[in-house]
Every structure is written in structure tokens, then in C-alpha cells.
Amino acid sequence: MKKLIILAMILALSVTAAFASGSKEADTGSKSDNKIEISFSGYLVNGDGAEAAAVAFDSVRTQFLKDNPNVVWNEDMLAHDQYSNKVIVDASGDNLSDIFMVKAEWINNWVENEYLGSMNDFLDNDEEWVAGFAPNVFSEFTRNNNVYGIPYRIDTTANLFYNEEILKECGITEFPKDLEEFREVVRIIRNKGFIPITAGNLGGWFVDICIFRAFVDRFCGNEWNASMNMKNGEAAFTDKVFIDALKEFEGLVKDGAFNSDINSIDFIQGYTNFYQGKAAMLFDGSGGILPHTMTAPAEIVEAMKVTKLPDMKGGKGTGIPGTAGWAIAYNKNVAPEKLPIIEKFVKAIGSSDFANIQAVNSGTHAYKTSEIDTSKISPLMNEYNKMMETVPMNLAVTFSPAVLDVMYSGLQEIIIRTTTPEALAEKLQKAYASDLVK
After folding, report:
1. Where are the chain's structural domains?
2. pLDDT (tens digit, 9 = 90+) per residue, 260-281?
3. Are 96 and 331 in contact (CB under 8 A)?
4. Which of 95, 168, 264, 430 shows its CA 20 to 30 Å from the CA of 151?
């Protein structure tokens, strides 16, 4: 009997030990798995002909998942327009992904509806990381001192390109330092038989977005732009600074700065005078750099330089108007345990690795690059990238279609001298005020 009791006790202890051992192994297994599911949605589809940011995203996301094997990544990547439509529906239905791409023009509404999580903790805890971003790059995604998006690219809209050889032929060995000198250079170039600035403004948008906004920056500054964008009533088109910007543009028209057919040809046709060596300068967005280097004759490309509109003595702005356009954001209602992974991911997007890939694919970037093979990039693009390390990208205001219609037609009328700066400012303010009432 004693032997049977002892045997039963041994068996019981063995089962208990085995159960305890199994439980421990199960616990260890669950801890080692420690999987965190992260959902992402965006429009950066990679493949043949993909934009530089899409190529960079694909590479950086792949490396991020290798470095973080505990992340289960659920990605919904759609074409641009499809994504834009779907994410608006997702937001209204409280069905946003953990991380997603957000458009600058949605920020006011999406902050008001509490869709977006603040990036401030990520930014405040890492000054070295923040220092790598281009100046003013967060402005479009900042409301009430909270940053709600991490931009991955910037596109400047009003860069000034010039033919260095034509300027030399006109006796100009140094590009003008301020607007006063610029106006004098325009007159010199015109008197030498060249078109000072070539442009195509059929439809009206090109002069506004790619030329006039640079003058708004000089006279009005970033705070005026931001106020108009936020519609807080602190700035108006009838402000003296805006009317003065219109007057400066009108002065260029009177000086014969532009080609006579500017309003009757499109922007691509407007490049022709520059490509043929008939024009000394043109304005264009940063997205035009690669097409220019591929389309213009070799001798024109070789002589082509890029800069910003010269500064204004006592002016409010010294940068180039532009937009980040899109940024990486996260869902305000995301589970707290996901935040460390989200922080890691946005830092992977806002990084030199991401910027380097964009740069070698002739893309613009919001973060500083590290050592890259600049021989793979056109000299003009290299020059632009170097310039943007110190020149701030200043917020370009997004206006309603009604305001833009008045702006586009009004600037065309300024060019043909059928309206005045004061009259145009009044019409613009009336359209703008109508939007505020809505």
C-alpha cells in the first residue's frame, strides 16, 4: 500500500511539474511573439514610372519591417485619386488606419473633428531629428501649436531659372540681390533685345502660382499667408502689403518684362522662348526641373541656373512659396501600445535614408540628405537641392475656386492693363469674404 501511495504521489508531482513547465513555455512563447498589428493607407504606389517618394517609401518600409519583426503590417496602397476619395470616407466613418497620408488642405477640418494624433511628443523628444527637416516644412500641418503630420517632400512653386550666358551677354555678371536691382536688370535685358521673363498664362493659373506668389511672399510674408489660409480674419486682400505686391508685379508689366503673347499660350509653350535662347529667365515649380533638363537643348541646360526671386529691402519674406502637400499622420484613437512603433515609422520616413532615395530619383525632399552620389543627379537638381538647404519653403495659400477664378482673371487683366491693383484687391476680398460667410 505504501508503495502504491508513493507511486501515486510521484505521478501527481510529475503531472504538476509538466503542467507548470508547459504553462511557462506558453507564457514565454506569447512574450516572444509580442506581435503588434499596424494598418497603413496611402497613395505612394511603387512600380514603373513611380514618383521618387513612392520608390523611397517602398525601400524604407521594407527595411523598417526587417528591423521590427514583431510588426504585422497591413497596407492599403491605392492610386492617388482613389486613395483621396477612400480616406475621406474612412475618416467620416471613423475607420481610419493607424497610420495614413493626409492632405494639407484637409487639416483644419480633420483637426476640428479630432481625426489626427499630435506629433509633438515625437518632435519634442528628439531635437537632433527635428533639425534635419527643411525650414518651415511643418507649417501646413500645424494648428494650435500641434504638429499633425510629418511631410516627406516639398514642392516649391515659384523658383526663378535664368540663362547665365544671356545675362553675361547683357553685361550682368552677378544676379541681382534685391527687387530694385531686379527691376533694373529686367530693363537692361529688354533693351538688349531679349525677353526678360517668358511665361505662358493661358487659363490664368501659371502667373499666380509660379510668379506672383513669390511677390506676395516678399511683400506680405508667411504670417499673412498663414492667416489667409486659416481664415481667422487677421489678414485681407485689401491690406496695403498685398496691394503693394500687385503694384510691383504691375511695374514689371510696364517695364516689358514678359512676352507679349503671355495670356494666349500655355505654360509649356511659354518655355519655348527660353529653350530657343530668346528669353533670359523663366519661373517654374520644382517639378519642372527634371523635364527642363530632359527637354531643353544641351547648351541651354548647361547655361541654366536656379535661384529665388531676389529679396526686398524691408520685406516680410525671403523664401520660396510652396507646399509639402501631403504628410504622414496617425489616428488619434490609436491604441497607446502602438505609439512607439508609429514614432519609429514616422522617423524612418522623416530621415536622410528616405531623402537620399528621393534625391537620386530626381525628387524633392523634406529632410536633409547624407552622402549621396551626386553624379546620378543633374547639375540643376543638385543646385536646387543645395539652395533649399538654407532657403525656407514658405506656405502657399490654398484659396477656394471662387477666389482663384478672380485671381487668375484679375492678373490677366493686370497684364493687359484693363484693371488696377486696388480694383483687383477689392474683387478678391469680396470673393474671399463670401467664402467666410459660407
Report:
1. 37-154+324-367, 157-320+397-437
2. 999 999 999 999 999 999 999 9
3. yes
4. 95
Say if 37-154+324-367 and 157-320+397-437 have the same CATH topology.
yes
37-154+324-367 CATH fold: D-Maltodextrin-Binding Protein; domain 2 (3.40.190)
Query: What is the pLDDT, as a whole number, of residue 85?
Result: 95
Instruction: Assign 156 a pLDDT band (cuts: 50, 70, 90).
Output: very high
* Tens digit of each residue's pLDDT (9 = 90 or more) over 194-219: 999 999 999 999 999 999 999 999 99
pLDDT at 232: 81
Q: Is the pLDDT of residue 324 over 50?
A: yes
SS3 sequence of the chain? CHHHHHHHHHHHHHHHHHHHHHHHHHHHHHHHHCCEEEEEEECCCCCCCCCHHHHHHHHHHHHHHHHCCCEEEEEEECCHHHHHHHHHHHHHCCCCCCEEEEEHHHHHHHHHCCCECCCHHHHHCCHHHHCCECCCCCHHHEECCEECCEECCCEECCEEEEEHHHHHHCCCCCCCCEHHHHHHHHHHHHHCCCEEEECCCCCCHHHHHHHHHHHHHHHHHHHHHHHHHHCCCCCCCCCHHHHHHHHHHHHHHHCCCECCCHHHCCHHHHHHHHHCCCEEEEEECHHHHHHHHHHCCHHHHHHEEEECCCECCCCCCCCEEEECCEEEEEECCCCHHHHHHHHHHHHHHCCHHHHHHHHHCCCCCCECCCCCCHHHCCHHHHHHHHHCCCCCEEECCCCCHHHHHHHHHHHHHHHCCCCCHHHHHHHHHHHHHHHHHC
